[in-house]
Amino acid sequence: MPYTEEHLRTAQMNVAESEKRVSRLSDVVAHLKQHGQSTASAEAQLSQFHAMARAYRERREELEAILKQRKAR
C-alpha cells in the first residue's frame, strides 16, 4: 500500500493526542498521590498510555522514513 502525507499527518495527530493523554493522566496520578489516594489503577493505565504513545511514535517514524526514501528516488 503506498503511504501518503495524509498517513503521516494522521500518525502525527495520534502522537500528539497520545502525549496529551499521558500528560493528563500523569497530572491525575500526581493529584491522587498529593491527596493520599490510591494510584495503582491510574498508574497501570498510565503505563498502558506510555506504551501506546511509544507505538504511535514508532509508527510515525516508520512512515517518515518510508516517505523520505520515496522522495529520494
Structural key phrases:
73 residues
What does this structure look like?
The chain is mainly α. It has one domain. It is 86% helix and 0% strand. α1 (5-34) runs antiparallel to α2 (40-72). The two termini are 17 Å apart. The model has no long low-confidence stretch (mean pLDDT 97).
In angstroms, what is the radius of gyration? 17 Å
* SSE-based structural type: mainly alpha
The largest sheet, given as strand count, sense and whether it forms a barrel, is:
none
Question: Uncertain spans, ≥5 residues at pLDDT below 50?
Answer: none
Q: Name the average pLDDT.
A: 97
Tell me the count of domains: 1
SSE topology:
Elements: H1 5-34, H2 40-72
Summarize the structure.
The chain is built from two helices and no strands. By secondary structure, it is mainly α.
